[in-house]
Amino acid sequence: MSLDRRKFLSSAALGAAAAASIPAASIPALANDDEARSLGDGTPLPWGKTRFAVNIEMWGFGGGPAQNRIREAAKLGYPAVEFWPWRGKDLEQIRIACEETGIEVAQFTAWPFSPGMNDPKNHDKIEKEIAASIETAQKLKARKMTVIAGNDQPGMTQEQMHENVITGLKRFAPMAEEAGVMLILEPMNIRVDHKGHCLYGSPEAVHICREVNSPMVKINWDLYHMQITEGDLCRRMREGWDQVGYLQLADNPGRREPGTGEIDYSRVFKEAWDLGYRDYIGLECSPSGNEIRATERVKAADVWS
User: Fold this and answer.
1) How many CB atoms lie within 10 A of CB 305?
2) 106-161 pLDDT per residue, tens
3) Can you spell out the DSSP letters for 198-227?
4) Rounded to whole angstroms, how far apart are CA atoms 50 and 273?
5) Alpha-carbon distance 82 to 97, whole Å?
6) 12, 81, 136, 284: most buried, per Cβ within 10 A?
7) Statement: residue 22 has pLDDT above 70
8) Quick one: average pLDDT of 4-32?
9) Which residues pair with residue 221 across a beta bridge?
10) What distance in Å separates the CA atoms of residue 10 and residue 41, rounded to the nearest whole number?
């Protein structure tokens, strides 16, 4: 059943009230025509246990500046957002939009792929970037920010590059600890999206963060990247759980919302919950249709017990 925006928004409160009386087993599956179904009376599916932060870079909400997208995310019931590098955005307008809607900034990217932490020549510049990003985090009341290892450096082995990342993070960790802002290191995938990146897969990222040994330096554990790189999502997540600082997702293939690919996100959400995760999970995926249908798919995936 299709949902138009007006009907979706006007019926949101009714859907939430109905949730308590609807057993999980009776929530309908996704429709064969690739649209997410609502409940039988046309109201939206209820939200489950997992808290999601919608990525306002990949969820376009019709375009416009970040503050407009934050307001649109709030209308769909999301409690938080995340975004990529903060430079070039109107931070004051973002702050106002968050304050007006009650939306939180779960995390943002501190700087782009360059400069890379894997080259010690960049560490002075990165220290300045981290200092400026901490100020941004404090302004927006964000508790985490993503940091990037960097693309391959000519003449360096992967081991050398990773050692340089460890050196850099040990240097930057006291800044994060003093500010109370967690640096979350994101391993990518090199098969599909980030060819030439120096950090991919969980074992290497876990090793780096364990070597740094700081409560404020952990992993941005992007399940989409992990699926492409290594699979075995639940076991790998358990093995590296002490270093998980944040979770992100997209289904694979396609980097769309849950329910459009091969990953059983209901199982993954339950695993994360059982491991004690209560923070936001970032929806770093592109909606396969409009944002309303994608939101219903997200909710449908968060049905487990």
Assistant:
1) 9
2) 999 999 999 999 999 999 999 999 999 999 999 999 999 999 999 999 999 999 99
3) S-BSHHHHHHHHHHH--TTEEEEEEHHHHH
4) 8
5) 13
6) 81
7) no
8) 38
9) 247
10) 13
Distance (Å, rounded) from C-alpha 216 to C-alpha 174?
Answer: 9
What does the alpha-carbon distance between residue 190 and residue 20 come to, in Å, rounded to a whole number? 43
How far is residue 147 CA from its own chain's centroid? 13
Which residue shows structure tokens 């049905």? 303
Please name the amino acid found at residue 177: E
Domains of the chain: 110-249 (3.20.20.150)
Q: How far is CA 188 from CA 30, 219, 264, in A?
A: 30, 11, 20
d(CA 103, CA 120): 37
What angle (nearest 5°) sits at the alpha carbon of residue 46, between those of residues 45 and 49?
A: 135
pTM > 0.90: yes or no: no
- What is the distance between the alpha carbons of residues 28 and 37, in angstroms, rounded to a whole number? 7
Q: List all residues 6 or more positions away from 256 whose beta carbon is below 8 Å from its beta carbon.
A: 250, 285, 286, 287, 288, 294
The pLDDT tens digits of the residues spanning 155-213 come to 999 999 999 999 999 999 999 999 999 999 999 999 999 999 999 999 999 999 999 99
Tokens of 107: 């995390």
